[in-house]
Amino acid sequence: MSKIKNERTKAFREAFEKNSKQVAVQRGVVKNGIRTSAENVQAQIENAPVFSIDLATGKVANQKQSGRCWMFAALNTFRHKLLTSFQLKDFELSQNYTFFWDKYEKANYFYENILNTAEQPTTSREVTFLLQTPQQDGGQWDMIVSLFQKYGVVPKSVMPESSNSSNSRDLNNYLNKLLRKHATLLRQMVAEKASNEEIQANREAMLQEVYNLLAISLGTPPEVFDFEYRDDEKNYHLDQGLTPQSFYDQYIGVNLDDYVSIINAPTEDKPFMKSYTVDMLGNVVDGKQVKYLNLEMEDFKALAVKQLEEGESVWFGCDVGQSSTRDSGIMALNAYDIEDLFDVDLTMTKAERLDYGESLMTHAMVLTGVDMIDDQAKKWKVENSWGEKVGEKGFFVMSDEWMDEYTYQIVVRKEFLSPDQLAAFEATPTVLAPWDPMGALA
């Protein structure tokens, strides 16, 4: 044990007060805050919103007070196709519809994991992990694929936003209370040697309660609907009797099995050119397995560039809170001079940040452009889902160096992978622990 002696603290104070530079900085930081005081205008100058490849997109969407960025990002990639193919303007797909089914499926997935771990004590790391957050708003690309393949999509006009999808705190709070109560009942039934039939009957009754809670909070998902719109040339269109699945097939038509998730995780436990999955990570039981191929950053970025060059935006996941400005929308390593402000060294490698809990994927957005100079990416255009009041009308600029350090995942078409990369992806994946940073939900 090495306790702090009062004499030593007094010496620290005296040393601080003798440093006139630190005292001057103190006045500014106390008055204006850390980030405002440390913001570096040079980052904005170096990252002007001009790109050699710049895909056409509509207005940005707004996830508001919810953690649905992964969902918004995926739906935005589809929206880009719809805007072009059908000459639509300011069109959005229903995030509330997908949100409903994600919550519903996550509840059932939680039951599955609770039953699979029912023989373990509640103090085991696995059970503690499950009960800490039975479900939440976040997700992964393969999880959204499972929802699209099972439930399709609908226009936002058919199932618009609700109060609880735009601000999901109360919904998550009460749904998680209900799921923890259900966990106690399921574990008790297993302990009492209940039959599989009894457990299944109770599980279905629990799912009915979840459905009711979601329907009351979010509305009832449509089964059949009409799609009515005017295109950019003011021509009227009416398509009647659609289902969510037929709408997806007719208006989006993307084969989601053609896409793969690529990660960059340069830690010792994850060799490159290997595939990985995460234990207990998913939403739809028997849905698409969450699976990644780990590649070095040079190959990672080359795949993103290929897809953008083909005119298709790229879903990606990153740690958005690191060295990024909300108002100006700059994601750059020099966005803030924090080290100069405090006279400290905060340098860590990307692997160290992952291993020591300093960084992981926290947010998903869409790459809609890149600035290529002499065949090298210099900066990237990013479509966010925080509305038009942040960044450049909702769009951010990400420096290439920032991408190296804080971007962890992209989703690209299989056709862009080399034969060796594709073979590595399709190999049996290594299973990572549920709490591995690569299992973080955006």
List the helices and strands and how they pair.
Elements: H1 6-18, H2 20-32, H3 34-38, H4 41-46, E1 53-54, H5 69-85, H6 95-116, H7 125-132, H8 141-151, H9 163-166, H10 169-191, H11 196-218, E2 225-230, E3 236-242, H12 244-252, E4 259-263, E5 274-278, E6 292-294, H13 297-309, E7 314-318, E8 324-325, E9 330-331, H14 338-342, H15 350-355, E10 363-373, E11 376-383, E12 395-399, H16 400-406, E13 407-413, H17 419-426, E14 430-432
Parallel strand pairs: 4-6, 5-14, 9-12
Antiparallel strand pairs: 1-10, 2-3, 4-13, 5-6, 7-10, 7-13, 8-9, 10-11, 11-12
Helix pairs in contact: 6-10, 6-11, 10-11
Globular, elongated, flat, extended or rod-shaped: what is the shape? globular
Tell me the Rg in angstroms: 24 Å
Number of strands: 14
User: Alpha-carbon distance between the termini?
Assistant: 39 Å
Fraction of residues in helices?
40-55%
Note poorly predicted spans: none
Structural class: alpha+beta
* Count of helical regions: 17
Q: Largest sheet, described in full?
A: 12 strands, mixed
Whole-number average pLDDT?
A: 97
Strand residue percentage: 15-25%
